[in-house]
Amino acid sequence: MPRGSRRPKGQNSVPSRSHEVEAISTSMIRVGRNLFCSSSNATTSDSSNKPEDKISVTFVDKDGEEKLVKVPIGMSMLEAAHENDIELEGACEGSLACSTCHVIVTDVNYYNKLEDPVDEENDMLDLAFGLTETSRLGCQVIASPELDGIRLALPAATRNFAVDGYVAKSH
Question: Where is the segment annotated Disordered (predicted)?
Fold first, then answer.
């Protein structure tokens, strides 16, 4: 069963970044006697919009309608769905606080290529409507070259426990 399967320790599942350069940006601000510092990293590619920098993903909606989209490497499936007008809710905006971006990986071989879900994702998946052995949260499935051709089915319904009046925003 895929949910219980684990990759051997030491197996590197991080995509190769041979054509990318990682930069770190640091900023500091002084407030009174305190100095606050933050840093972030950004990845820049030596050439943008190359076809190999995107993968093909097929979303299958609750009615069986398929939509093939190109997704940039590093983008979550939740973001990809929002950018391509696919009805995948994402009420918590990818913060692992809901299960409304629940997707079902239709091929166990692709499911096994994904990073193992963290405990917080498993906790949210326990609340998902129509949970399967290959269920994941779309916000946690990140496009990588080995996922080229993946098919993601959207469940017939979702459970949104957000408070009344909450409006989800796309990324």
Answer: 1-21
